[in-house]
């Protein structure tokens, strides 16, 4: 197949000359290439036979925002390999700490406002990115000393997956904004990033307007007034009590006198208790043994968590990472701080990785996970009380993971 035999120097689709291999795994090969027809540098992805969403492909072709790395063409090779060509992308991204340190708050606010505009344009066209993260936000230096941020990875939207949501894109923009701020003193931008993560923006357009200072930050959802609920409950309860009292008085006033019922006399019956082999016959005159209750319930009963609660604290999970068995330990702090420990089997050896990041609540009792290890591998996905799934991406490519209760 083209995916397996493609090498530097080949010309794909009679147009794109492969110049350098960037990444390869069993499902995809990525090359930097030269478009002979246009004379421009591009990225060519050769993807194992998969059926793309043709509607999304058609919509992507019309998107050319300056803050978006465009999808130029998607076509099928003679052997069924999918050929995806996008604009050229450099390795300079918000995933590089040294590069993030050079960005000032003004650059970040302006760049993320433009990113929000690009995401809004895509949403209006019916395209949801679904996988925004710092490593997919390219930093492009301009001649005047300023920088431009561009969002890559739009081609991932063409592959059939679980339904993506607009709210996830906006929330992920907030997470990336928080990462870009690093340890900078920018309290207003941190408030905006937190509002994104909390879901206080209904559209990316609103986020762009706040970052430019054209409108104020949306207010948080109003807190429910419990005093009002208590007052309404008291009024309803009082009304029901009055109705019951009136009904009781009416019933007593209209009751027909009847002959009182006299209970039959009780006759004590003294039956001998059956003897049990090996046990002494109990004396009826003796006092029954006292029953004592423990001061507290056993720890395994009193301390058992109720099912369905948010996954706070430390929990252990079993599952898989790609084709290999894996074990997981999650620790979620009340402030959303996340620590993930992964044990995986490879070539008869057990490897351990430690990821740190954040967890946010989505869909009731489900959590969205976003973390990275010291080597730059990124972990993401969602998990609930019974299990979850997601992805792990690093230098060796991208692998899917699953977790379930052991």
What features would you describe in this structure?
This protein is of the alpha+beta class and 406 residues long. It has 3 domains: 2-87, Phosphorylase Kinase, domain 1 (2-Layer Sandwich); 97-212, Transferase(Phosphotransferase) domain 1 (Transferase(Phosphotransferase), domain 1); 313-404, Lipocalin. The protein is 25% helix and 30% strand. It is built from 9 helices and 16 strands. The chain has helices at 2-5, 54-60, 97-100, 105-124, 166-181, 187-197, 204-212, 226-253, 299-302; strands at 11-12, 16-24, 28-35, 40-47, 71-76, 82-87, 137-141, 147-151, 313-321, 324-332, 337-346, 349-362, 366-372, 378-384, 387-394, 397-404. Helix 4 packs antiparallel against helix 5. It is elongated, with a radius of gyration of 33 Å. Mean pLDDT is 81; it is low at 291-309.
Task: Record keyword descriptors for this entry.
8-stranded antiparallel beta barrel, 9 helices, Transferase(Phosphotransferase), domain 1, Phosphorylase Kinase, domain 1, elongated, 6-stranded antiparallel β-sheet, alpha+beta, 406 residues, single chain, 3 domains, 30% strand, Lipocalin
What structural category arises from helix and sheet content?
A: alpha+beta
Query: Main sheet?
Result: 8 strands, antiparallel, barrel
CATH-defined topology of the largest domain: Transferase(Phosphotransferase), domain 1
SSE string, helix = H, strand = E? HEEEEHEEHHEEHHHHHEEEEEEEE
Approximate strand percentage: 25-35%
């Amino acid at each position: 197949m083209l995916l397996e035999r493609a090498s530097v120097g080949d010309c794909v689709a009679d147009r794109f000359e492969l110049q350098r291999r960037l990444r390869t795994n069993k499902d995809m090969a990525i090359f930097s290439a030269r478009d002979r027809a246009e004379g421009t540098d591009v990225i060519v992805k050769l993807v194992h036979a998969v059926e793309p969403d043709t509607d999304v492909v058609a919509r992507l072709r019309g998107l050319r925002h300056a803050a978006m790395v465009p999808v130029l063409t998607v076509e099928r090779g003679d052997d069924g390999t999918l050929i995806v060509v996008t604009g050229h992308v450099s390795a300079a991204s918000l995933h590089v700490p040294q590069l993030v340190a050079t960005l000032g708050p003004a650059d970040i606010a302006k760049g993320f406002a433009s990113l929000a505009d690009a995401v809004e344009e895509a949403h209006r066209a019916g395209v949801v990115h679904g996988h925004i993260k710092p490593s997919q936000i390219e930093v492009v230096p301009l001649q005047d000393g300023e920088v431009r941020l561009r969002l890559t990875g739009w081609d991932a939207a063409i592959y059939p997956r679980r339904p993506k949501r607009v709210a996830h894109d906006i929330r992920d923009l907030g997470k990336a904004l928080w990462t870009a701020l690093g340890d900078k003193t920018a309290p207003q931008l941190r408030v905006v990033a937190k509002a994104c993560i909390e879901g206080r923006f209904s559209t990316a357009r609103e986020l762009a307007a706040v970052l430019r200072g054209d409108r104020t930050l949306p207010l948080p959802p109003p807190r429910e007034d419990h005093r009002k609920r208590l007052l309404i409950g008291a009024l309803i309860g009082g009304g029901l009590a009055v109705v019951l009292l009136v009904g009781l008085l009416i019933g007593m006033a209209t009751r027909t006198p009847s002959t009182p019922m006299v209970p039959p006399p009780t006759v004590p019956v003294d039956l001998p208790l059956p003897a049990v082999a090996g046990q002494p016959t109990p004396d009826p005159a003796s006092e029954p043994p006292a029953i004592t209750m423990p001061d507290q319930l056993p720890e395994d009963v009193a301390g058992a968590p109720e099912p369905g609660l948010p996954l706070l604290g430390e929990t252990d999970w079993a599952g898989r990472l790609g084709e290999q068995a894996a074990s997981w330990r999650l620790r979620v702090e009340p402030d959303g701080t996340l620590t993930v420990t992964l044990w995986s089997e490879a070539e008869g050896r057990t490897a351990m990785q430690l990821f740190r990041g954040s967890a946010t609540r989505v869909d009731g009792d489900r959590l969205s996970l976003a973390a990275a290890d010291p080597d730059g591998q990124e972990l993401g996905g969602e998990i609930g009380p019974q299990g979850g799934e997601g992805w792990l991406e690093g230098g060796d490519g991208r692998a899917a993971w699953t977790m379930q209760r052991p």
